[in-house]
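Here is one chain, start to finish.
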Amino acid sequence: MAREKITFEVFYSEQYGDRWEELKAAMLSEEEDKTTLPDLIQPYYMDRTSIETAYLLPLKEGDSVLDMCAAPGGKTIVLLSRMEGKCSLVSNDRSSERRERMRRAVTECLPSSLLSSWKVTGHDASKWGLYEKEAYDAILLDAPCSSERHVMQSHEHLMQWSPSRPKRLQALQYTMLNSAMMALKRGGCLLYSTCSINRLEDDAIIRRFMTKHPGEAIEVPIALEFGEKLDYGSLVLPDKSGGRGPMYAALLRKL
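Its structure:
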């Protein structure tokens, strides 16, 4: 048991060096900066940076939009609020339980007038691009990730952690990113995000895609409050943002 916890410490202290102790304290703090959108039927509280991130995806009237890993539904609520019924949105998640939670959250928070062009699906996001090629004008891929803040605040999850977990996630994230790019129309934008502090799940995923697919996409500059610019995208960390995050986001435009 102890060795697993030390392994977690070593894994992240090697990435963050002298900053790790301060970052760890902020991750363990319950002083998270959460808020809700105005004008909802009932509030849906989420990290302020999560809301800001969902606003980074460019949208225009008539767009076909995909929220590829949508549950529990916070960013779907933001997208539907932004669309005001002028775009169509597919919100996808493989888990039937998570889909039902998302449906409840969305229908409890938003008026039915915003939901007429909203569809919920349960497909395998990693294979999506094989079946719907160049079908969407905009895609949000809020990828499954290590979610270290949650892990660190749960003794059970921390004890279950091992270095193999982020490795598995990296493979899944890269596969999903490839699939999303296949499903994206030329000229469309893809927003990749995670709530991980692991650079191998963040910037490294985008770098790998851009290296393996030269000329297929370009990075679009984004502005996240408290975001620390990386080679691709920005990372908001709670030790420098008053408790916000973690949240990584990168925006790509398909050529």
